[in-house]
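Summary of Year 1 activities. Much of the first year was spent building the evaluation harness for sequence design. The harness presents a backbone, in tokenized form, and records the residue chosen at every position. We chose the following record to illustrate the format because it has been used consistently in internal testing since the harness was completed.
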């Protein structure tokens, strides 16, 4: 981490959006009660990062929960997530991942649970192959290239997205256009406020 980036880390940030309090966007945070359940598997180190957007997804989605891995040497057991009340998918672009599209969603009336790994690419990939209890759970992906001009962090693939951004795209397919738009609008607020705080773009005072 550079000296400049350390200087730009917010002091006394908001405990929800993790922006400097004069840039807080929590008044715009949506509250969505959906059939779809989002379960985010955080790496412990990711929770300390002010650019993390998975926590914002948890705040916006009432039917969501978090699990934390990497806190100790014991492997996190996720087997209790596999319940018949949901069709459970791991949201991870493995070679055998299915495209998350309307056809897949409409194959059953059973609500969907998306298990979403959150962390850098290396951390997220470990959920895919280390949790053997998930070995029979279908993987799903969104192949659409990320055409956003600005990013919270540097992306390593053309489809790479921030966690909240990816969840917004997924819920647009599963729950409908308006749900996806609400989450995407909030993600863009977070993105802009973060980049303004870094001095990478000018603050909009209009």
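For this record, the design step produced the sequence shown next.
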């Amino acid at each position: 981490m550079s000296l400049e980036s350390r200087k730009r880390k917010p002091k006394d940030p908001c405990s929800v959006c993790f922006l400097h309090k004069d840039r807080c966007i929590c008044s715009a945070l949506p509250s969505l009660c959906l059939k779809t359940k989002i379960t985010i598997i955080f790496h412990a180190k990711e929770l300390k990062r002010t650019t993390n957007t998975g926590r914002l997804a948890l705040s916006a989605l009432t039917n969501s929960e978090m699990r934390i891995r990497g806190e100790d040497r014991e492997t996190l057991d996720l087997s209790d997530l596999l319940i018949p009340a949901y069709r459970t998918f791991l949201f991870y672009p493995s070679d055998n991942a299915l495209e998350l599209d309307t056809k897949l969603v409409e194959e059953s009336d059973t609500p969907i649970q998306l298990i979403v790994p959150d962390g850098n690419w290396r951390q997220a990939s470990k959920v895919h192959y280390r949790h053997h209890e998930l070995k029979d759970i279908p993987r799903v992906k969104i192949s659409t290239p990320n055409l956003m001009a600005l990013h919270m962090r540097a992306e390593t693939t053309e489809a790479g997205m921030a966690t909240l951004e990816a969840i917004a795209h997924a819920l647009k397919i599963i729950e409908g256009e308006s749900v996806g738009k609400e989450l995407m609008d909030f993600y863009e607020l977070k993105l802009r406020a973060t980049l303004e705080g870094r001095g990478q773009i000018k603050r909009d005072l209009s």
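The first strand starts at residue 37 and ends at 43. Quantitative recovery figures across the full test set are reported in Table 2.
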